[in-house]
Amino acid sequence: MSISTLLILVLIGLLAGFVSGLLGIGGGVVIVPLMMLIFGSSQLEAQGTSLAVLAVPVTFLAAYGYYTEGYLNWKYALAIAVTFVIGGYLGSKLAISIPKELLKKIFAIALIIVAIKMLFGK
């Protein structure tokens, strides 16, 4: 794994953790689209890798299912998982400090942006 790939994975982990802590979303809304856009991962590899990030204990069996079919990148999942924890902590600190109505609007906008990109992107 190259340094640039590792740095991108670290940024994805931080962003996913931050957004997860801030809005309660992360894997499906942040990691999956970014893995597809940045690394050209297939939908299944991105989902499998995202699930592995959250594998213990919640999604372990689902991630294992992807793994047995060859749709999981463990190296990527590990790099993202380590930094996800830091981002999650920072995102949760911000979420606690901003008004609930603003948080609700940020969440809605994030979902709309991802939905539009998924509907009309490549």
What's the short story on this structure?
With 122 residues, the chain is mostly helical.
Task: Write a structural description.
With 122 residues, this protein is mainly α. The protein has one domain (3-120). It contains six helices and no strands. It has helices at residues 3-23, 27-39, 43-53, 55-68, 74-97, 100-120. Helix 1 packs parallel to helix 5, helix 3 (43-53) runs antiparallel to helix 4 and helix 3 (43-53) crosses helix 5 (74-97). The chain is globular, with a radius of gyration of 14 Å. The model has no long low-confidence stretch (mean pLDDT 86).
Helices and strands in order:
Blueprint (H helix, E strand, L loop, with lengths): L2 H21 L3 H13 L3 H11 L1 H14 L5 H24 L2 H21 L2
Helix/strand-derived category reads mainly alpha
Distance between the termini: 26 Å
Radius of gyration, in angstroms, nearest whole number? 14 Å
Mind summarizing the main beta sheet?
Answer: none
Beta strand count: 0
Number of domains: 1
Work out the helicity level: over 70%
Globally, the shape reads globular
Report the β-strand fraction as a percent range: under 5%
Q: Helix and strand string, N-terminal first?
A: HHHHHH
Counting H and I runs of at least 4 residues, what is the number of helices?
6
- Give the mean pLDDT: 86
Q: Which stretches of 5+ consecutive residues score pLDDT under 50? A: none
